[in-house]
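Example 9 (inverse folding). The structure is encoded as follows.
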């Protein structure tokens, strides 16, 4: 197995900056890929140990290419996450002024984060999507577009200059990235973990989603993400990507997943991994009746009842 991490490239993406924040990245070869799909396929085919890709941003929600790959592609698992605060720079070939910009490019997920700025400052510019923000910068270098929204750090890499910096429609916009590998035993609980799953619900079942969510809420498990994605089976057919607080090694999470596996036609476990937003010291204690000890004591009581030893 190759000790390399594939990531959404080319060099100079926000993805690369976020990846370099993981201590383990320092000991791996980092290999840029042209798309999220090719980064994930490199892992599935054994060419890379893991892939690092964007999955969610606080302005627009899920990065659908990544979610759909994790939902429907050959199974993979999430091992780590990184949160990165993002502002954009407008990168141009040296000497280009704002009034000369007719075309702008960036990754589609960048657009909702710069839309107001674009309307105010470059109302007539035509938007074209790029495979990533750094790829947009590369295309500006090649003369294909006049300007790209990307990280300021990408300017030097592509011989461009930043005409404007700090561009962001929403304050504190953050993007979440995940390190994805082939399925294996999740790391032991860190004390502040989350669990990602995809749930399919039975067709035409009134209150189906409420019942699925009840498996979590009834055990005191807080949800951090709920995103529906079409299953591809026609209008009205959705599955649900869910991030929930806790680790599959926690009794309450294991029991919630057991309940979901019984009632859902399909459940895909996407991993239990350390949260990037808070540490163990900030995790609130389990709600009354939902600690490991309370689950175990209750299971022992049932066993004693079954034995007539209560
Ligand atoms: O990493 C990049 O540069 C990307 O193209 C993905 C992305 C898109 C929008 C915000 C953050 C990351």
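The amino acid assigned to each position is listed next.
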């Amino acid at each position: 197995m190759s000790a390399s991490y594939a990531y959404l490239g080319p060099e100079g993406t926000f993805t690369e900056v976020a990846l370099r924040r993981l201590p383990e990245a320092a000991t791996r070869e980092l290999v840029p890929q042209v798309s999220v799909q090719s980064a994930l396929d490199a892992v599935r085919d054994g060419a890379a140990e893991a892939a690092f890709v964007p999955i969610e941003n606080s302005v627009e929600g899920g990065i659908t290419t990544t979610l759909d790959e994790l939902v429907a592609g050959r199974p993979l698992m999430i091992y780590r996450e990184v949160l990165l605060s993002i502002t954009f720079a407008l990168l141009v070939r040296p000497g280009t002024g704002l009034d000369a910009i007719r075309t702008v490019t960036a990754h589609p997920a960048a657009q909702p984060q710069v839309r107001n700025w674009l309307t105010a400052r470059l109302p007539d510019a035509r938007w074209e999507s790029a495979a990533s923000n750094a790829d947009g910068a590369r295309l500006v270098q090649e003369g294909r577009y006049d300007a790209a929204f990307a990280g300021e750090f990408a300017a030097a890499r592509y011989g461009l200059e930043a005409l404007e910096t700090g561009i962001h429609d929403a304050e504190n916009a953050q993007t979440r990235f995940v390190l994805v590998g082939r399925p294996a035993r999740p790391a032991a609980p860190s004390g502040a973990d989350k669990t990602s799953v995809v749930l399919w619900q039975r067709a035409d079942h009134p209150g189906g989603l409420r019942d699925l969510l009840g498996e979590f809420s009834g055990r005191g498990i807080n949800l951090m993400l709920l995103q529906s994605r079409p299953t591809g089976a026609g209008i009205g057919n959705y599955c649900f990507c869910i991030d929930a607080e806790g680790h599959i090694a926690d009794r309450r999470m294991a029991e919630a997943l057991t309940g979901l596996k019984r009632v859902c036609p399909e459940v895909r476990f996407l991993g239990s991994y350390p949260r990037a937003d808070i540490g163990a010291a900030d995790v609130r204690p389990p709600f009354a009746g939902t600690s490991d000890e309370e689950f175990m004591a209750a299971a022992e009581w049932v066993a004693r009842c079954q034995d007539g030893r209560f």
